[in-house]
Amino acid sequence: MAGWNTYKGLAVALPRADIDTDQLIPARFMSASRSEGYGQYLMRDLREGDADFPLDRHPEAGALVAGPNFGCGSSREAAVYALVDAGIRVVIAESFADIFAGNAVNNGLLPARVAETDEILAAMGTGTATISVDLDAAELRVNDTRYAFNLPRLWAEKLINGWDDIDLTRAHLDDIAAFRAERATQSAWAWPRQV
Amino acid sequence: MSATLLDKLWSAHEIKRNADGASLLWVDRHLVHEGSHHAFAKLAERGMKVAEPGLTFGVADHYAPTRSRDHIADPDIAKMLDRLEKNTAAHGVQLFGLRDPRQGIVHVLGPEQGLTLPGLLINCGDSHTSTHGAFGALAFGIGATQVAHVLATQTIWQVKPRAMRIVVEGALGPGVTAKDIALHWIAKLGTSGAAGHAVEYAGSAIEALSMEGRMTLCNLSIEGGARFGMIAPDQTTFDYVKARPFAPDGALWDEALADWAGLHSDAEAHFDKEARFDAGEIAPTVTWGTTPEQALPITEAVPDPATLTGARAEAAEAAIAYMGLAPGQKLDGTPVDQVFLGSCTNARIEDLRAAAAILKGRRAKVPGVVSPGSMLVRAQAEGEGLDTVFREAGLDWVASGCSMCVGMNGDLVAAGKRCASSTNRNFRGRQGKGARTHLMSPVMVAAAAVTGTLTDARPLMAGRL
């Protein structure tokens, strides 16, 4: 996965709270292989019957500004695949569900927790805004206003470097082996009985 | 220094902590289901093997057909089950597949088989993995990239969440269950009320719960935003675990008990957040909206968005429109089209017994499906004659799986139909496109079946439970 540090693009407003992963991608599309691309499934049921859906009006948008508790619900990473495959690089919200935020970072998508999201949404109305993001500075601009976003440093490093966790962890294989050996001795009960 | 249960479980699994505060944790059990295909594909791309096949277990549940298992008509569903079979076989991972008499929902099967134990760290690519915390385990759902990571390394990177305690004191009233405790606290604190936190449940009402009830409560922790739900293990826990197939026995059992005795928060332990509830004030609770926090006692009415403010008012208005309800409409008496009893939240034997107690000798006014949490629960229920009660009431008694909770196996609620459901999510489209889901306990589902409406189960229970 390629890393990135700065981003400039168009943001659309989706001022709804609790956009859950069932809405981001309905369960019936999840048997597809990733190679087929998940962008076409993004918010499929929300878009249908809404001729004015913001993402349909601005398919070139690379950022979403949404209500609180974005990505709640199922752990399905397919919700992030749908966003990423549809070209979304940044989601701005007051809060994210924990699992979703972790999944996002693992796929190069920034979950930007911005305390003033309501203010941004109010300024955007139903329109768009230009945004720019600086991951290293943990700062973004919406039109001409600066906002800080909250992101654990490790997550910023992962996004910037395009790090893959498996590669990172392989540097610790000796520690893992030592831990395993000690646990197998001290807590042998923790291994499943052979059935 | 005083430690919380979270602290103790965390330090027991922490291999190392990096400068950014993220911990590399050892995973004792990794449960995979059909949705793991993305993770196995990532492993295949790198030509890697599963690091610890002996600690990895496969389960067919999300796509498991609940009818006609011998011939799966839908090629997509057959493909998903086949992929799981091939992936687990290729890596030497034991699979509880469709033809296994132990097959069931991963969060029912794990505890039932003794794969779930106090003091373990358990991961699964499913948000309701929080269920296993009921045993005093560190259990949480993960995404596909993390599933691939656990498969490859048997470890997980995780930032330690803050500690939160939810204390429930007192006795639950008749007909009030663990499901109601969960919907009650989520309604009070909100769907992100516990975000960034590990929740430990405590108090006399929690101690009085059966293991089934504790699993229901911890299962729903994720709906309040919590990463973990957990309960300190006690005699109730040990009695449940003892002699389960994969649980330790002999000398190892004694060693385990000695270790588990320390798994509780110390008296002076610090919690970053605490909430307290009085069990006596909790009523049978149902959801009226499209998030689990949009819940009220069955004796109440659909709220009027005009009495709410800001985002909550907008959310309520949208939810009421989607649900086809009217502000001020009494919940009790709202007609339903069908019922569903099942899911990892409420398909254990205790749940089926409670629902059957209400249904016995009565007819359901609406159609419905009863899907037990595992094929062993199914066999046990049949041994007790519960299947006869469900069938005679006019409900479908089917095989085990996630079924109509998430609809991946084709068991769906049709658009615009209203379902009284023992599941965990009332999200838009969750049980099917346009489906209208009301969450409630198994006794409340049974009561809804009997009257054909959302109904206070308590009068129907008189002399039965």
Task: Give an account of the 3D structure.
The complex is a heterodimer of chains A (195) and B (465). Chain A is an alpha/beta fold and 195 residues long. In chain A, strands 4-3-2-1-5-6-7 form a 7-stranded mixed sheet. Chain A is globular. Chain A starts with 5 loop residues before the first strand and ends in a 9-residue tail after the last helix. Chain B has a 5-stranded parallel sheet with strand order 5-4-3-6-7, with helices on both faces. With 465 residues, chain B is an alpha/beta fold. In chain B, a hairpin with a 4-residue loop joins strand 1 and strand 2. Chain B is globular and about 55 Å long. Chain B is built from 16 helices and 19 strands. The model of chain B has no long low-confidence stretch (mean pLDDT 96). Helix content of chain B is 33%, strand content 17%. Chains A and B meet through helix 5, helix 7, helix 8 and helix 9 of A and strand 2, helix 2, helix 3, helix 5 and strand 8 of B.
Averaged pLDDT of chain B, please? 96
The percent range for helix content of chain A is 25-40%
Question: Which series of helices and strands of chain A comes N to C?
Answer: EHHHEHEHEHEEEHHH
Q: Indicate the low-confidence ranges of chain B by residue numbers.
A: none
Spatial strand order of the main sheet of chain A: 4-3-2-1-5-6-7
Measured between the Cα atoms of the first and last residue of chain B, the distance is 45 Å
Shape of chain A: globular
- Give a short account of the largest sheet of chain A: 7 strands, mixed
Q: Helical stretch count of chain A?
A: 9
Q: How would you describe the shape of chain B?
A: globular
Strand content of chain A is 15-25%
Unreliable spans of chain A are none
Number of strands of chain A: 7
Structural class based on helices, strands and sheet pairing of chain A: alpha/beta
